[in-house]
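Input (Ribulose-phosphate 3-epimerase):
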Amino acid sequence: ASQPLIAPSILSADFARLGEEIAAVSGPGAGRADWVHVDVMDGHFVPNLTIGLPVVRSLLNTTDIPLDIHLMIEDPDRWAPGYAEAGADNVTVHAEAAHDPVGIARDLHAAGAKAGYSIKPGTPLEDHLDTLRHYDTLLVMSVEPGFGGQEFIPSVLDKVRTARRLADTGHLRVLVEIDGGINADTIEQAAEAGVDCFVAGSAVYGADDPARAIASLRERAAH
Ligand code: DX5
Ligand code: ZN
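Output:
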């Protein structure tokens, strides 16, 4: 892993002020978000409901920062391409929900987006290595998807280490992303395991100064 990427999750932001909340992490310097992570939940794949394509479209009009769309929804085959067509930079679907993941990756690429593939904490990486050849990012969930503010599950770092090794030896070309429970206490172990991109919700938007929180996470991930 080279320079760490920090992706604040707006799940922990004020949903009535999303534009301002993104602006707060869009300044220059180490406090600037590399990606803004957007959690789309449908109340079926996960027991929580957030926002969908209309809000994402509006966010795309308010920011230059790449949007990292995390689809925690059923039937992503049907819905994922719309986010790519709208201009999202990276669109991630869940392994546990995708019917034809290779077809999804092809559709996302055809629409000009990167394709992301996410596995829940209990999902083995080994079962998905062939599929991952078609993807640009691997999102390793370090909590059960659905809610912010949960405790980091360190055992998922074995999957990160495996993915790192496969990426470093050229067997996979994925960027390794982690999501869930990342904060000042947990980010260093994730960085050591080989994560490239760190999603952080409550650690950024629960802080008094979100940009400063990003800068400090960045600093810790680099050491
Ligand atoms: C959880 C979401 C995460 C969430 C992380 O299902 O995918 O992106 O926002 O929140 P924290 O960083 O608070 O665990
Ligand atoms: Zn997420």
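The CA atoms of residues 70 and 92 lie 5 Å apart.
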